[in-house]
């Protein structure tokens, strides 16, 4: 039931508003004074939370009023929050900082709405549902997460990729305002150029946070970690020309959360990024060096029209690598599947792969003369050169919270199958240090590069580095 009444201004509860700038209230206050009343009441919910009329409320305060006409709407839960957010968004355009704030409000609502759709789908056998022991899963499939993110962003007038860039700058500004607040201020203006400011942010981050070297002696070798962006790390710190193997798993462009670093690019940006890091890896490798890249078979975000696997292979060939073969890593069934598509029907089913690829590339020629001790056993050689590799993935809790760490077993097999004891191995996207752990256990020299400080810290702890 909707009701009109008068209420004390002090009783109206104004929460955190998306739009902080109210504009010039003077003309509105003067109009209300001349007319002698408000033509439209303030709108609140049944608990007194303001839904609409923030400017009119402020005008009444300036006029010295203590009471205002109020319309009470019987709205609760998601509907009330949606009405309040929509009221702020009707006055587009928002500047990028306001839009990102709006997005953070709208995103949980979009996900809640997706959950409701999932529940309805479970009842009717529709898309995106799962029944497990009679209980409906509350997790979202990756497609549903993307849709919720995009739907919420669309309401602000920006794409989710743009808003994620604003989010990264905002979070950096909150952690270190002296360094990054000026960039956030640039975004807090109408018609701000987000891509330009984000480019400034990345350059400033590299300049203010240069790569920091950490090392730990073990046996007859050395493991080194470099904190920084692989594309920005000087070649002089990467043992150029003496790296025998590159083992890594680059960002997948699947919107995984890597600390303060984003994992969301357009198709064009992701292809360019992949080409750049592979070109640098090629330059660092010694002749006859090998490069092993772990990637999924999936398609990435948004307008990306090719699987990540295909993009990596094409980019590698373009920069000079030669393709040898692809190892299929079977990680086992997922216990958290929620996306089935047209469940029980052939109209639009979803397929969820339990496998990932390890693309094996080389520089120059494949045959590599002996250069050290061979440490692979006959049984290992026979087992690892036929059929898929089957072993489980790495739980994030055991990898410093990294959302996409591979287990040590993967680089250990690659080290022993494709190299010798004493080899120098580079991981340009080290994450929480699985490749370096394998190097340490197999007597290889390891160099790891990682841009996210929290993962460098996690890797140091796993490797036993002293602070």
For the termini, the CA-CA separation is: 63 Å
Secondary-structure arrangement, i.e. CATH architecture of the largest domain: 3-Layer(aba) Sandwich
The geometry reads as elongated
Radius of gyration: 28 Å
Care to describe what's here?
The protein is α/β, with parallel strands linked by helices and 467 residues long. The chain has 14 helices and 15 strands. It has helices at 26-35, 54-62, 77-89, 96-124, 142-154, 160-175, 177-187, 194-208, 267-284, 308-319, 378-384, 409-418, 434-442, 453-463, and strands at residues 3-8, 42-45, 50-52, 67-73, 131-132, 135-136, 212-218, 221-227, 243-248, 285-295, 322-330, 355-362, 389-390, 424-427, 445-450. It has a nine-stranded mixed sheet, sandwiched between helices. Strands 1-4-2-3 form a four-stranded mixed sheet. A hairpin with a 2-residue loop joins strand 7 and strand 8. Helix 7 runs antiparallel to helix 8 and helix 12 crosses helix 13 (434-442). It is elongated, with a radius of gyration of 28 Å. It starts with a strand and ends with a helix. The relative contact order is 0.10.
List the helices and strands and how they pair.
Blueprint: E1 3-8, H1 26-35, E2 42-45, E3 50-52, H2 54-62, E4 67-73, H3 77-89, H4 96-124, E5 131-132, E6 135-136, H5 142-154, H6 160-175, H7 177-187, H8 194-208, E7 212-218, E8 221-227, E9 243-248, H9 267-284, E10 285-295, H10 308-319, E11 322-330, E12 355-362, H11 378-384, E13 389-390, H12 409-418, E14 424-427, H13 434-442, E15 445-450, H14 453-463
Parallel strand pairs: 2-4, 8-15, 9-10, 9-14, 11-13, 14-15
Antiparallel strand pairs: 1-4, 2-3, 5-6, 7-8, 10-12, 11-12
């Amino acid at each position: 039931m909707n009701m009109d009444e008068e209420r004390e201004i002090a009783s109206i509860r104004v929460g955190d508003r998306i739009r902080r700038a109210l504009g010039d209230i003077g003309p509105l206050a003067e109009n209300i004074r001349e007319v002698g009343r408000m033509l439209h009441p303030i709108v609140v919910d049944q608990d007194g939370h303001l839904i609409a009329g923030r400017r009119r409320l402020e005008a009444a305060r300036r006029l010295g009023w203590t009471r205002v006409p109020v319309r009470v709407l019987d709205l609760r839960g998601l509907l009330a929050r949606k009405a309040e957010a929509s009221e702020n968004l009707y006055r587009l355009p928002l500047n990028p900082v306001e839009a990102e704030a709006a997005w953070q409000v709208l995103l949980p609502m979009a996900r809640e709405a997706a959950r409701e759709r999932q529940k309805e789908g479970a009842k009717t056998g529709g898309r995106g549902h799962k029944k497990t022991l009679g209980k409906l899963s509350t997790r979202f499939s990756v497609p549903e997460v993307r849709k919720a993110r995009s739907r919420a962003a669309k309401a602000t007038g920006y794409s989710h990729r743009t808003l994620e860039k604003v989010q990264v700058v905002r979070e950096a500004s909150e952690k270190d305002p002296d360094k990054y607040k000026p960039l956030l201020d640039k975004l807090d203006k109408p018609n701000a150029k987000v891509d330009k400011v984000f480019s400034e942010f990345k350059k400033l981050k590299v300049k203010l946070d240069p790569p920091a070297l950490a090392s730990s002696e073990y046996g007859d070798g050395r493991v080194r970690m470099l904190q920084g962006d692989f594309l920005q790390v000087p070649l002089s710190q990467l043992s150029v020309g003496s790296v025998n193997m590159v083992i890594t798993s680059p960002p997948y462009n699947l919107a995984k959360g890597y600390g303060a670093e984003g994992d969301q690019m357009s198709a064009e940006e992701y292809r360019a990024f992949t080409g750049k890091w592979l070109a640098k890896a090629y330059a660092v490798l010694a002749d006859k060096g090998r490069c092993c890249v772990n990637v999924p078979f999936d398609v990435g975000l948004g307008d990306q029209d090719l699987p990540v696997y295909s993009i990596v292979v094409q980019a590698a060939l373009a920069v000079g690598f030669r393709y040898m073969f692809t190892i299929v890593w079977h990680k086992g069934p997922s216990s958290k599947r929620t996306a089935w598509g047209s469940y029980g029907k052939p109209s639009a089913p979803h397929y969820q792969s339990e496998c990932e690829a390890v693309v094996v590339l080389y520089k120059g020629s494949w045959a590599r003369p002996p250069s050290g001790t061979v440490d692979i056993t006959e049984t290992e050689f026979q087992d690892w050169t036929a059929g898929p590799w089957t072993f489980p993935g790495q739980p994030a809790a055991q990898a410093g919270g990294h959302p996409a760490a591979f287990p040590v077993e993967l680089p250990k097999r690659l080290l022993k199958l494709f190299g010798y004891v004493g080899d120098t191995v580079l991981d340009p996207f080290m994450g929480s240090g699985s490749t370096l752990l394998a190097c340490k256990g197999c007597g290889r020299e390891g160099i790891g590069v990682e841009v996210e400080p929290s993962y460098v810290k996690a890797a140091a702890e796993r490797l036993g580095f002293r602070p």
